[in-house]
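Example (one chain per record):
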Amino acid sequence: MANLADGRFDRRAALDNAQRLVQQNKLSPAIEAYEQLTRQDPSDWASANTLGDLLVRAHRADQAIREYLRVAHYLTSTGFLARAGAIYKKVLRLDPTHVEALRETESLNIPRFVKPGDQAKRIGEAQVQVDPAPVAAAVDHPATPETPPAPTIAERDNKHDPTWSLDQPDPSPA
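Predicted structure:
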């Protein structure tokens, strides 16, 4: 195994061995190696994520989902919400009806849309207020002496010199 002479776990050697096994496409030994890595360091979410990927390749989706959920819970608890959301999406690719993954994905998306200091506690409470008076006034009174009508496209095109050519400097405003 990946133990030092004094019996301590040699993480670097274990990780090198696990990666070598993956490159050789030896799934079962690679899964065992990554399981050992995650047992030794439960906070190693990168190895746990790789373990989940290997379990998927080995057609062990239930175990992969359990591993992904463990990783996602850890990432959420440490504040890596976007990464946790990506892991929950992996779970949903394996099981689109997974209730916990659906619930957590939904709850992780809410903070992305609410800015700090926003008064809305939930997205449903956010309100947009539109004053209908300017819209109604524009419909009832299309143009007044204070607000002349906007020029039409033809009027805007006539303002430019139609005889301009590539030999002349560009007449358009900078």
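Caption: Confidence is low (pLDDT under 50) at residues 119-128.
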